[in-house]
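Entries read sequence, tokenised fold; example below:

***
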Amino acid sequence: MTKLTFKTKIYSDGADLEDMKAINENDFVTGFTTNPSLLKKAGVTDYLTFAKEAVATFPDEAISFEVFSNDYDTMLKEAKMLHDLGPHVYVKIPIRTTAGEPTTNLIHDLTADGVKVNVTAIATVEQVKESVDAIVPGTPSIVSIFVGRVADAGIDPIPFVKQSVALTKDRDDVELLWASTREVYSIMQAEQYGVDIITVPPTIIDKLVAKAGQTGDDITMNTVKGFAADIKATGLKILG
């Protein structure tokens, strides 16, 4: 068990129960997020069975499950079903349907009914504003900004992060979540800018644990020693 502490909450992103159990042994991991792509990657074949097992395995942890449908009525039914799985469940609602329609009415109605939501797939400041305005005060909710995907598009995501923090900081019932994390340093950036939560895939958490506290000299020596080991393993030569 690794003893690391952070001001920003760290959730693990994934849908493999065994991976989730292993990651949960780190004290700094306090919740989980899932999504349809992660379910596919993990080979999940029965969504509700997986969700129930996850809640039973981590009864005291925040955990987010996403709706699958795109029409209001079905999304509402799915959201309430997921909500009923446990008191710490957040229901992920994409800010847009696949037809590009906003889901703000659904977000409003769910939070009015006490359903904790995690508004997801947010990539613009305007979408953050929409989400915050739609969440009925008093129901704990999460607004997830996809920082890594914004950066993947060649856009500096930091102005987006700063503006999102400003838009959510006065809502005690709304937490801002940094999603689509690509590197360990994103955790430090999330803390620096005052983001409430960052969701991190297991591979990045493993890297954080393995490399925490390394100096520049440590990185250099580990690198050249790794190169040397690979040279030996391959048997490659420059001089015969």
In short: Residues 60 and 88 are 7 Å apart (CA to CA). The first strand starts at residue 9 and ends at 13. The beta strands are 9-13, 29-33, 62-66, 89-94, 117-122, 141-146, 174-179, 197-200. The longest helix spans residues 216-234.
